[in-house]
Amino acid sequence: MKKLCILFICFFCFCFQANSAEVLQVSSSSVVLIGDQNRTYTVKIACTEIDPDLEETSIIWLKKQLPRHTKVNLKPKGSIDGALVARVIPFNTNIDITEQYISEGLAKNTC
Which residues are within 8 A (CB) of 40 and not within 5 positions of it... i.e. 6 or more apart? Predict the structure, then answer.
């Protein structure tokens, strides 16, 4: 019985592969299209206010930070007009994009 339980646990632990969300497109300086295996989400980056004069610079910077297929972790904060408002954290840096935006001087913290 003990061997059967161990086999059962091993089967379920190793047979499922977790797929993370990844960036599909940077739509604007504060909106990103995120997808996983079968869904897509429009995500507004939480706690940021972009200066209109820095819009183009912000888009270029965000595309460098979040190129297509970058794996990200989302920390939801709510929703606005059908878009998920969340903190976006790339797996490769583990640093919140909002914090990077503010430290670069491209955004103001609104939280």
Answer: 24, 33, 34
**Total count of domains within the chain:** 1
- Whether 8 shows a pLDDT value over 80: the answer reads no
Cα–Cα distance measured from residue 92 to residue 90, given in angstroms and rounded to the nearest whole number = 6
Quick check: is 37 in a domain? yes
At 52-68, the pLDDT tens digits run 888 999 999 999 999 99
CB atoms within 10 A of CB 101: 24
3-class SS shares of the chain: helix, strand, coil, % to 5: 30, 35, 30
Contact 92, 41 (CB under 8 A): no
Q: Is residue 101 one of the residues assigned to a domain?
A: yes
- Is 10 among the domain residues? no
What is the pLDDT, as a whole number, of residue 70?
A: 92
Tokens of 51: 């200066």
